[in-house]
Specification:
The chain is an alpha+beta fold. 43% of the residues lie in helices and 15% in strands. It contains six helices and four strands, in the order βαβααβαααβ. It has a four-stranded antiparallel beta sheet. The chain starts with a strand and ends with a strand.
Length: 145
């Protein structure tokens, strides 16, 4: 099982610093959302495509989309950036937009979620993104195999 902890941080350097301690971002220091198996390189660009009405390739090509920020030779855990476009789309999404996105997002083959669980996941991601925007932070994923 892949561990994916999404979190906000003030900079790339601060985000990569979570690798200095075992277990990922400390919830007493960072705003953290644990989402097992929600891949930041494959699944998040698909979500961005759904929310911003672009293709997966367009979302993946955006700056910061699934970019490895930590040492590629590291064993065990990595830090990957989440695009600012996705952060902003989540932060500004209305309930109606989330409702419309839940069905297509539940159909993403890399996820094994019911539409109800997908709705909950989207709401939790929106909360993280809204808090990040309010605090002028970016989103990241601590990804451990």
């Amino acid at each position: 099982m892949v561990m994916c902890d999404y979190f906000s941080a003030a900079s790339d350097e601060v985000a990569v610093g979570v690798l200095d301690a075992p277990g990922g971002p400390d919830a007493s220091v960072f705003d953290v959302l644990s989402l097992k198996d929600v891949d930041p390189v494959v699944v998040m660009p698909k979500l961005e495509g759904i929310l911003t009405d672009c293709t997966y390739d367009e979302a993946l090509a955006r700056p910061r989309s699934g970019r490895l920020l930590s040492d590629p030779e590291a064993e065990g855990a990595f830090v990957v950036s989440v695009s600012d476009t996705l952060r902003d789309a989540l932060a500004t999404a209305s309930g109606d937009q989330l409702g419309m996105a839940a069905g297509p997002f539940a159909a993403v083959e890399e996820l094994s979620l019911t539409p109800t669980k997908t709705w909950e996941l989207l709401n939790r991601l929106c909360g993280l993104a809204r808090r990040a925007v309010a605090e002028d932070r970016r989103l990241y994923c601590w990804w451990a195999l």
